[in-house]
Specification:
Rossmann fold, 42% helix, 13 helices, 3 domains, 434 Repressor (Amino-terminal Domain), six-stranded parallel beta sheet
Length: 357
C-alpha cells in the first residue's frame, strides 16, 4: 500500500499528522518511537491517522523525539526559604554530575504564578520539570490544576515533591510521618508532655501528615490531645513563628516544648520566648524541621529534622532522567529523615504547680 497524500497532493508529513491530531509534532514522534509516555486518547488518535495515511516517517521525523536539551526545569515555591534553596542546590549539583543543566523559576510564594511559569518552562523546551512545593503539595488537588499538569505531561514529564491525584506524576517525598515521630520520641523521652505545634497549613500534605502523627503519638503515650497547644493554620515563615508563639503565651504558659514547622518559624518562636524571658531549653525546648543553616546560627543551636538534601536532590534528578529516557521508576520514592539533636532541647523541668517555669 502506497502512502497517501494530503488534499493538496503533497506527501503526508509528521506535521500534517500532528495538525490533524491537534498535538505537537514531538508528540507524534513519541508515538512513532514509543520512547516516552503519551496520553492513551492522544496515542489512539495518532495511531489511527498513521494507519489511515500509511504514514512512514523519515529519519528526521524519528529524530524529533531524541532532540533533547539536557535541561531540567525546577519550579520552586519560594527560593527565599532556605529549605527550597538547599534543595535546589542539591538538584543542581546532582544534575551537573550526569551532564544536565537545571534552570530555576521561583513563584515567590504565590501559587497564582505557577501556571504562567510552567508555561515558560514549556517554551524553553526543557526535558522535564521538577516542582518543589506549591500546588503540587496540596492535600487535595484541584481539578483545574490536575488538567493543566496532565496537558503538560503529554509532552514533558513532571516530578513533584508532594502528590497530584489524577495525574501520572512521579513523586519524591519526605516521610513526614516519620519526621514527626522522631521529634515526638525525642521530646517524650526528655519527659515533655505538653508539646505545642507552631506554623504551617493543614491543607498541605506534609503538614497534615505531621499533625496526624502528632495526635497519634499523644494517644499512644496516653496523653490527652489539647487543641489549645496547636496554633491555627498560618505560614512557614519567621513572622508566623513569632506571632503564633506570642498569641499562645498570652493565653497559657504551661507548655514545656514547641515543635515549629521549620527552622524559619523556629527563629520567630525563639525570639518570642527570649522577649518573654523564657529560657531555652531550661524553661522551654524548641525543635523544628529542615536542618538548614539557620539551625546552626540559632542561639542556642536548634534541634532539627534533617532531610539529607544531597540524597533528596539526587533522587529527584535520577527520577526525572529515568522518565525522560523511558526507564521505569517507582511512581513514589521516599527520602527518610533523621534528627540532629542540638542545645535547644533538654529535659522537662516542671515546677510544684505543674507549670514549666
Amino acid at each position: 500500500m502506497l502512502p497517501q497524500k494530503s488534499n493538496e497532493g503533497k506527501a503526508i508529513t509528521i506535521y500534517d499528522i500532528a495538525k490533524e491530531a491537534e498535538v505537537s509534532p514531538s508528540t507524534v514522534s513519541r508515538v512513532l518511537t514509543n520512547s516516552a509516555r503519551v496520553r492513551p486518547e492522544k496515542r489512539q488518535k495518532i495511531e489511527a491517522l498513521i494507519a489511515k495515511y500509511n504514514f512512514k516517517p523519515n529519519a528526521l521525523a524519528k529524530g524529533l523525539a531524541d532532540t533533547r536539551t539536557r535541561t531540567i526545569g525546577v519550579l520552586a515555591a519560594d527560593i527565599r526559604n532556605p529549605y527550597y534553596a538547599s534543595l535546589f542546590v542539591a538538584c543542581e549539583q546532582a544534575a551537573k554530575e550526569v551532564g544536565y543543566t537545571v534552570v530555576l523559576y521561583n513563584t515567590l510564594g504565590k501559587t497564582e504564578n505557577e501556571v504562567e511559569l510552567l508555561g515558560k518552562l514549556q517554551e524553553q523546551k526543557v526535558d522535564a520539570i521538577i516542582q518543589l512545593g506549591g500546588r503540587a503539595d496540596d492535600l487535595v488537588s484541584s481539578a483545574e490544576y490536575v488538567e493543566i499538569i496532565n496537558e503538560i505531561m503529554s509532552s514533558i514529564p513532571v516530578v513533584v515533591t508532594g502528590k497530584l491525584d489524577g495525574t501520572r506524576c512521579h513523586a519524591v517525598r519526605i516521610d513526614s510521618m516519620k519526621s514527626m515521630e522522631l521529634l515526638m520520641e525525642h521530646l517524650l523521652g526528655l519527659g515533655h508532655r505538653r508539646i505545642a505545634l507552631i506554623g504551617g497549613r493543614r491543607n498541605v500534605l506534609a503538614t497534615f501528615e505531621k499533625y496526624q502523627k502528632y495526635k497519634l503519638m499523644l494517644k499512644e503515650n496516653m496523653i490527652a490531645y489539647d487543641d489549645g497547644l496547636v496554633a491555627p493554620d498560618g505560614g512557614y515563615d519567621f513572622e508566623t513563628g513569632y506571632r503564633q508563639m506570642n498569641e499562645m503565651l498570652a493565653k497559657r504558659t504551661d507548655m514545656t516544648a514547641v515543635i515549629a514547622i521549620n527552622d524559619f518559624a523556629a527563629m520567630g518562636v525563639m525570639k518570642s520566648l527570649n522577649e518573654h524571658g523564657i529560657r531555652i531549653p531550661e524553661d522551654m525546648s524548641v525543635v523544628s524541621y529542615d536542618n538548614t543553616y539557620m539551625s546552626e546560627m540559632a542561639m542556642p543551636r536548634l534541634t532539627s529534622i534533617d532531610y539529607n538534601f544531597g540524597e533528596y536532590g539526587r533522587k529527584l534528578i535520577d527520577t526525572s532522567i529515568a522518565v525522560i529516557e523511558g526507564r521505569k521508576k517507582d511512581n513514589l520514592r521516599m527520602v527518610m529523615p533523621a534528627i540532629v539533636v542540638r542545645e535547644s532541647s533538654g529535659p522537662c523541668r516542671v515546677g510544684a504547680l505543674g507549670k514549666s517555669f
